């Protein structure tokens, strides 16, 4: 377990909660949805009071809405490019020179080109601005919906495979890498992946920090691909896959020995990315609240949003209009 600070007895309670939540989530769901739900729910406990009380009261909403952004992909063609960026499709110097602001980026490159390579670094800061606005308005539903979405996009930015065009190993003969990394590892090792977390901190420049997060995750890509190759040569070919049943169909997936080999080779990478996601989500939520002037949020006197799904999808979505983009789903 990575200790980022010396915990007081009260923090040990928090750590225990994190470990407990982790076990629940990963055992119950596949990686994608489970991880997003886990990250949003866990981030609540890193918040300061009184923000934490409000978010804790509505934590089931934040948890369930953590996957709404992925669900919107099914019907909203504008949604998919918000979840990734193919950093490898930009030259190194070109990437470093990409404008921080969307309007400037559109002036330099066509919107179609930007969308085709993913707009995550511009979209997440925009959702952050919307969260600041929601706090200023005191709109509880919009706060929760936007905070849940923000948690989702930030979490995506921590996943190396969301940052390259070979997102499923399809270009390198490693087809299925996405599920191996994000489903199979946590399915078997989720309970041991929890990390100690820190209290939320103010983010001065969200867009800058997002690029830092993405660059850090991108730096792990080589390892993600290399480890898979290493394990293909280390684990005998007849032991690499195991059958499993889905409905009436008999399918195959990577075997436990193979997943274990990959997990060990990665050296706890996914656990660290998970912990980093939780910490950054809490940072951005708190920073938006502080930037909005730390408004009073009357959790217990408002409608109990955790007991209803009354969010309308009509949406204050003033999201980017003007054509869809590619999807990154394997
Ligand atoms: Zn996503």
Total helical segments: 15
> What's the average pLDDT?
83
CATH architectural designation? Orthogonal Bundle
The radius of gyration is: 20 Å
β-sheet strand percentage: under 5%
Low confidence ranges: 1-31, 307-325
The CATH homologous superfamily is named P1 Nuclease
Provide the spatial order of strands within the biggest beta sheet: 1-2
Q: Tell me the domain tally.
A: 1
Helix content: 40-55%
Q: What would the CATH topology be?
A: P1 Nuclease
Shape verdict? globular
Task: State the total count of DSSP E strands.
Answer: 2
User: What is the H-and-E element order?
Assistant: HHHHHHHHHHHHHEEHH
Can you offer a commentary on this structure?
The chain is mostly helical and 330 residues long. It has a single domain, classed as P1 Nuclease (Orthogonal Bundle). It is 54% helix and 4% strand. The chain contains 15 helices and two strands. It is globular. The structure holds zinc ion (ZN). Zinc ion binds next to α5 and α10. The site of zinc ion has 5 residues, from α5 and α10.
Helix and strand layout, with pairings?
Elements: H1 9-28, H2 31-43, H3 51-57, H4 59-64, H5 68-72, H6 92-96, H7 102-108, H8 111-116, H9 120-137, H10 140-157, H11 177-189, H12 206-218, H13 221-234, E1 241-246, E2 249-254, H14 256-266, H15 269-291
Antiparallel strand pairs: 1-2
Zinc ion is lined by residues 69-70, 83, 152, 156.
Name the features.
330 residues; mainly alpha; P1 Nuclease; two-stranded antiparallel ribbon; 2 strands; disordered N terminus; binds zinc ion
């Amino acid at each position: 377990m990575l200790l980022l600070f010396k915990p007081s007895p009260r923090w040990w309670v928090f750590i225990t909660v994190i470990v407990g939540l982790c076990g629940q989530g990963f055992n119950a769901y596949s990686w994608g949805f489970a991880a997003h739900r886990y990250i949003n729910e866990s981030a609540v406990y890193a918040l300061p009071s009184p923000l934490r009380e409000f978010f804790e009261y509505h934590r089931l909403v934040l948890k369930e809405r953590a996957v709404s952004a992925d669900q919107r992909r099914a019907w909203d063609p504008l949604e998919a490019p918000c979840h990734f960026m193919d950093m490898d499709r930009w030259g190194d110097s070109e990437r470093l020179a990409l404008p921080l602001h969307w309007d400037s980026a559109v002036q330099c490159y066509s919107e179609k080109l930007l969308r085709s390579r993913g707009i995550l670094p511009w979209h997440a800061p925009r959702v952050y601005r919307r969260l600041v606005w929601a706090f200023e308005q005191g709109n509880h539903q919009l706060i929760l919906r936007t905070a849940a979405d923000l948690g989702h996009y930030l979490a995506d930015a921590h996943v190396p495979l969301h940052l390259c065009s070979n997102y499923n190993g399809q270009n390198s003969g490693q087809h299925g890498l996405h599920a191996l990394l994000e489903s199979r590892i946590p399915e078997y090792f989720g309970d041991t992946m929890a990390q100690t977390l820190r209290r939320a901190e103010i983010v001065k420049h969200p867009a800058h920090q997002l690029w830092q997060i993405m660059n850090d995750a991108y730096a792990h890509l080589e390892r993600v691909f290399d480890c898979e190759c290493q394990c293909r040569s280390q684990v005998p070919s007849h032991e690499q896959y195991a059958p499993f049943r889905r409905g009436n169909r008999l399918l195959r997936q990577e075997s436990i020995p193979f997943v274990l080999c990959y997990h060990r080779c990665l050296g706890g990478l996914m656990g660290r990315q998970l912990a980093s996601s939780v910490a950054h989500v809490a940072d951005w939520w708190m920073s938006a609240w502080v930037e909005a002037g730390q408004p009073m949020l009357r959790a217990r006197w408002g409608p109990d949003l955790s007991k209803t799904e009354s969010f309308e999808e009509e949406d204050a979505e003033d999201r980017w209009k003007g054509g869809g983009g590619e999807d990154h789903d394997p």
